[in-house]
Amino acid sequence: MSPHGKTVLRDLGVVLHVPGLMALVSLPLAWLFGEGTAAGPLLITAAAALLPGQVLYWSCRRAPAMRLRHAMVTVVISWIAVPLIGTLPFLLIAGAQPAASETVLVFRDFWNALFEAMSGFTSTGLTMTPRPSALPHCLQWWRSFMQWVGGVGVVVLMLSVFHPSGDAYRLYFSEAREQTIVPDIAATVRTIWWIYLLYTALGMLLLWATGMDGWQAVNYAMTGIATGGFGVTDNSLADFGAGPRLAMVLIMLAGAVSFATHYRLLTRDRVALLWRDAEIHALVLLLVLGAGLLALENLWYGSGATWLDSLFQWTSALATAGFSTAPLETWSPTALVLLSLAMACGGAAGATTGGLKLRRVVRLASGAFARVRGVALHPWRLMDHKPMADAAVEAHTARTFEAAIVMAALWAAAVFAGTLLLLHAAGPGAPLDHVVLEVTSALGNVGLTTGITGPGLHWSGKLGLIVVMWMGRLEIVPVLVLVAALVMAARHRAAK
d(Cα 473, Cα 270) in Å, to the nearest integer? Predict the structure, then answer.
């Protein structure tokens, strides 16, 4: 094996420890809830992760230092390997229960189990579960735990525990994260985790105080701050009153704000910071305008949705959370298009959200406005001599604008390809607006659905959405790096 391959396998071995430790942490719940049949599957899951992880790490520990392309390939493969291991509790617990309910029996199908695990770790929230309330407590917890870890990223968790070396920044960057809270990566990921734990605990208290029982509050707080969307009730937040719904709106918005902003709010500038953050401005503007437009559309269309439903669903889409209080299949095509646009925008960069991210949306809007204004006001200027400092700033702005355009184009191409595939898998009766929302929801790691996603979907549709969720979590570019690496390797072998 080449030294490059050993570098990737070494760090993949470290990442595999994460689902193994997750299974061990979950083990006491099997005895706490009297679900002894879940103990064996969790132990098998831990062994299936930890043993290969140890073998890969120790056999490749002398591999060369990591480069950026190694980090990207490692992260891309990790986001395949970790959900595959996360599939085991679903398959094994479903197989270990002879008198399992229909809800549990769904997970005896490999594609359903893999779909649930990928949706969990990518904090998407699309589900194969007909009735989450009928699942054993261990599987309810496993779904929430996957989303909670996936909200900040499996690699970020690994870096906070196992990997303080010089390769840390490359792995951190490769998992679609750009911001560092403090100069040191190890300190950054530890800071992310204490903020995450703090907001999770506050979310639990808030949901419990507004009417949820303890188990519901724990699970919904974990998936809420992770902007995940999994729940332990059958109709998401529609099973609760106004109090828990408004509480979840606040939790989702907290998850849509970057950890760097939370850190500054908790330690320094407080409220004054909000007036200097372009992403916060964009989040507030989109929240107010979008919720208002959606409420007017629902009133005009007569969907029966209340103003609180419109506010909740818009927040859930914009924060890429995926919780629901109303059946979206009864909403108008215009309302579904609005929600799709919100899911495409997403929350702030460096948060737990998916989508394009508000930073790119702001860059696209400001860059387009600047180009149009320049053409409209100075159409005769072919050359513009500026001081070196201004020219450098303008060049940087142009590069960030072009990068945002490239990502938006890749996003549009992925939505187009996913829509074509899902139209075939869902059958001729599926409305186009429903299919586009479903694909956008998967690519944005959201979880809102019009009912297309479910156990009855053809396996090709499940596989297609699995790939789309995977690409969305990685923000597409690392996937292209892996494809390029595979093509180059194939050409190299063919040339020999």
Answer: 31
Average pLDDT over residues 235-248: 94
Q: Which residue has the tokens 């309910």?
A: 101
Query: How many Cβ atoms from other residues are within 10 Å of residue 186's Cβ?
Result: 17
Question: How many other C-beta atoms can be found within 10 angstroms of the C-beta atom of residue 385?
Answer: 6
Give, in degrees to the nearest 5, the angle at Cα 264 between 258 and 265. 90
CB atoms within 10 A of CB 411: 21
Q: Give the pLDDT confidence of 262-308 residue by residue, as tens digits.
A: 888 887 666 556 667 788 889 999 999 999 999 999 998 887 888 99
Q: Are 404 and 304 in contact (CB under 8 A)?
A: no
Q: Are the beta carbons of 70 and 8 closer than 8 angstroms?
A: yes
- Residue 298 has a CB neighbour count (10 Å cut-off) of 23
Structure tokens at 150: 């996936």
- Produce one character per residue of 341-360: b if its CB has 16 or more CB atoms within 10 Å, e if not: ebbbbbbbbbbbbbbbbbbb
What span, in angstroms and rounded, lies between the C-alpha atoms of 417 and 433? 15
Instruction: Write a three-state SS string for 289-349.
Output: HHHHHHHHHHHHHCCCCCHHHHHHHHHHHHCCCCCCCCCHHHCCHHHHHHHHHHHHHCCCC
Measured between alpha carbons, how far is 52 from 14 in angstroms, rounded to an integer? Answer: 10
Q: What is the pLDDT of residues 386-442, one digit of tens each?
A: 554 455 656 666 777 888 888 899 999 999 999 999 999 988 888 999 999 999 999
463: left (phi over 0), alpha (psi -120 to 50) or beta: alpha
Say how many C-beta atoms besides its own lie within 10 A of residue 21's C-beta: 19
Buried b (16+ CB within 10 A) or exposed e, 218-255: bbbbbbbbbbbbbbbbeebbbebeeebbebbbebbbbb
The pair of structure tokens assigned to 453 is 């996603």
pTM, to two decimals: 0.89
Instruction: Indicate the burial class of 62 (C-beta count within 10 angstroms; 0-12, 13-18, 19 or more).
Output: exposed
Q: Do 459 and 421 meet the contact criterion of CB atoms below 8 Å apart? A: no
Place of tokens 């594609």: 111
